[in-house]
Amino acid sequence: MTVLCLISNPADPALDSKLVAAIQHETGGEINWLHQRIACELHKPRVADPVAAARDVIGDQPIDVALVPLANRKKLILVADMDSTMINEECIDELADAVGIKDQVAEITARAMNGELDFEQALRTRVGLIKGLERKVMEEVRRERITMAPGGRALVQTMKAYGAYTSLVSGGFTYFAEHYAKRIGFDEAIANVLEFDGEQLTGTVADPIVDKTTKLNRLQTLAHERNVPIAATLAVGDGANDLEMIGGAGLGVALHAKPHVAAAAPVRIDHGDLTALLYLQGYEEDDLVR
Fold first, then answer.
1. Is the pTM of this model over 0.70?
2. Which positions are annotated as active-site residues?
3. pLDDT category, 225, cuts 50, 70, 90?
4. Which CATH number fits domain 73-89+148-290: 3.20.20.70, 3.40.50.1000, 3.55.40.10, 3.30.70.100?
5. Cα-based angle 159, 161, 166 (whole degrees, multiple of 5)
């Protein structure tokens, strides 16, 4: 049995009863509001492709649609990407901006995240370009340029309150991942380690590189260690290096993702914030831990 989820951005609610009724007319199912004007679900839709039917009614309105199974709906493991997922920025791009080469580095980042470049090679190239950057400048970047994505803390804190284990696994850097994992409330953080010579970056990254295989392996290892079925795992990310864990999770979500990542993911969230991942699991507004 399945549930059709309709989700809009809490900052710009776009759902109303009239629209939901029109969707129900096309899909069938029982209406259940999770959060008025923000999230609604239709239990047991009856048409062959309820997502397509719902999107035909929605048109270009900013509402996400997803079909999820009822079984194992509330997940017990969350593995999340960091850059452009749990935070709004790409940290390497912001570090590059501090030395005046953001455009050059951001182009490489965008191509790597869209799957056009080898991830490890692109990472080492970009880190090499910021060789000599001082730790105090990195501290300024972390403090002044990096912002947490809306809904992230609610996602992590709510899932933990209901017994889930949460892991931040980033192809970025421990310097940022450990800091933001603690602020958001993750149980652990795994990321690449930038190497220093005194107070300056050497332009190198320590082995082994955290890449797409690392992300998938961590998801699978956590499921095994915690005796959690894969169906009860959740992965979220936006880039090409997230696709394997997204595809390997019980619920894989592309959040505001690069086009080919969104197209390949089982579920895509283009409009909602990170609380959308709670509504996909059937959490209601009163359940959320803010």
1. yes
2. 81, 83
3. very high
4. 3.40.50.1000
5. 45
